[in-house]
Each structure stands twice: as structure tokens, then as C-alpha cells.
Amino acid sequence: MPVVFSIIESPLHPDFSKLYQELGLQQIKLSSMRKAMSELKKQTPDFVVAEFFYGYGNNYAGVNISNLDVFLHSLQRYAPMAKVIVLVDKTERQYADKLLEMFPLHGILVQPAQTGDIIKLLKM
Q1: Domain made up of 3-123: CATH architecture
Q2: Which of 63, 62, 30 lies closest to 45, judged by CA?
Q3: Hey, which of 7, 70, 82, 115 has its CA 20 to 30 A from 39?
Q4: pTM for this structure?
Q5: Is residue 80 classed as helix, strand or coil in its secondary structure?
Q6: Do 21 and 45 touch, CB atoms closer than 8 A?
């Protein structure tokens, strides 16, 4: 059964639990990047669905673009074939493109993400 890491760091992250189940995906819910990093060392995901938060100012030590950078570096080592779907607020969409320049992303969806859009990405 394919595994999807659902990294839920805010209440804006849509609940796709039922959809994942209908598509035959095993969902692993993770509430922080730290927990996602720990789980990544134990299990290889086929998909990762996570929210993008741009690192304004010094939020991410000035080196990283967003909350996802460190996790995506580790993902390249532990699960290079995992497909990453990023959920982004429309006001931060332009910054997600910077992340795309650094890492292979399967898709970027502007919040609120539509079920039909994520289904297409999960079936690709």
C-alpha cells in the first residue's frame, strides 16, 4: 500500500484522510517537520503533502527559504522517489517557485486546495 506523509502544521491544511483511504493510500499524519524527519528515517513515503510557509526575516535562520527546506534535503537522501505536493497560501505562491528551483516538486496547490486537483497529482 503506497504511503503518504501528511504533514499538518496549521488548521488550514485540508483533511484528505477519507480521500487517501479511497485511493488506497496509507496516511501517516505528522504534526511537525521534526516528527516528519524522524518518521522519514523509519519509513519511506511515496507521497508527501505539506504546507509551505515562507521564511520571512530570520524565521528559518536566513539560509532556508521555507519550513520545508531541511525536510526536503533529507527526503532526497532517504526517499528520492517520493512525490512532494506543496500546499501554499496565494499570498506566498511566488515564493514556492524558489523552492521549486531547489527541489523537485510534484505539484504546488494554492490553498484552499481542491479535491480534484490533489486527486490528479496522486494518480500521476
Answers
A1: 3-Layer(aba) Sandwich (3.40)
A2: 30
A3: 115
A4: 0.92
A5: coil
A6: no
